[in-house]
Prior knowledge:
The protein is 25% helix and 22% strand. The chain is α+β, with helices and mostly antiparallel strands.
Amino acid sequence: MMLVEQTTVPGAALPVAEFKDHLRLGTGFADDGVQDEVLEAYLRAAVAAVEARTGKALITRSFAWTLTAWRDLARQVLPVAPVSAITGLAIVDRLGGEEVIAPARYGLERDTHRPALVAAGLNLPVIPVGGSAVIAFDAGFGAGWSAVPSDLAQAVLMLAAHLYENRGSGSGADGAVPGAVQTLLGRWRNVRLFGGGAA
């Protein structure tokens, strides 16, 4: 299985100004924007860490997921949530031939933690031996930062601040997430019972 992010989070969607306020950086100086690139980099790192821990895409973007077999013949749980739309499904044979599947043959089962591609009939299309299925979908809470739930947004700011404030010591890069951030992420974490199968 391989998940590819087809589009990235635009810089304009990141809360650089809010992050400056969170850090209590001085304002009103001629060089106010001198650290914007650095702050954006820490925000991106924090967003990536929060997304990895929760399985949620914060800002909406497009993904393509390639897999070689269905876990369940009638439905396939998607690796990222929340999913707003499935934009395409294709079956690729071992020689690279591609069959685009009509949208009438599948649908989206919306869920906060475990959205799924579901068959419109009895089964999803057959994946041939040596072949794969490519599912294209859009996932995220919305196009702008205001769409991100407040607790997740606060967790990003707190984690980005932790990384920024410990940038010289190396202690921010040891993988430890502050307890307050873990608490904020708790309700968003997906408990992976049965490996994505029926719960």
